[in-house]
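USER:
Working in pairs, take the chain set out below, taking as long as you need, and write a paragraph about the fold.
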Amino acid sequence: MTARAWLGLVLLSTLALNACSNRLDTSQVEKSIQTDIERQGRRFSLKEVRCPEQVNRQEGAYFRCVGEIEPKGSFTINVTQRDKKGNLNWDIPNSKALLNLAKVETSIQDGLARAMGKQATVDCGSATYRINQPGDRFECQIVGGITMGPDTINSVLVTIDATGNLDWQEIKPPKLTAALPPNPTLAPPAVPGTVVSPATALQKGNVPKKAPAVLGSSD
């Protein structure tokens, strides 16, 4: 082998190494994202996370990965490179497969501000991600509550319709009725499962002068 040919092989190897070192290790990115999602998720696991195989290191560059849920369903993961060293930011938008509860909280907070003119902090629990399951429902707490007239609203109910779209409404506290003082002229309550005759149901001195007619009877 001539010196010129040997030099050519060395140059090719150097170029190949430089090209590889300028690319992200996307297999490691996939593992890291999958581990974080499952750790922050609410009782679900992922089949896999898939990212493009060849991504050059470039500050501000953007690419997408796809997550696959067990047993089915996929969602998008948006990834942005913070620098050329391989540091990344990634984000999951709400989708028909997976909910980002931080985004749900923000949406509810904005809705409450528009509807009631008051700012509030909404907490949908410790998990960050939740399966978007049609027909499912869950509560989110309003930290500190919102006072509207005589009522204090402390939570909202989030429902997922058949197509995977979300809706929410405030949960108002039940109306409390004041207990009425006892009336000695009223009959005592009947015990469930027993029959009380008119003679025992009415207290002495309050028996009507004429017994009421029985509907449906004939003379």
User: Anything to note?
Assistant: The mean pLDDT is 79. The chain has four helices and ten strands.
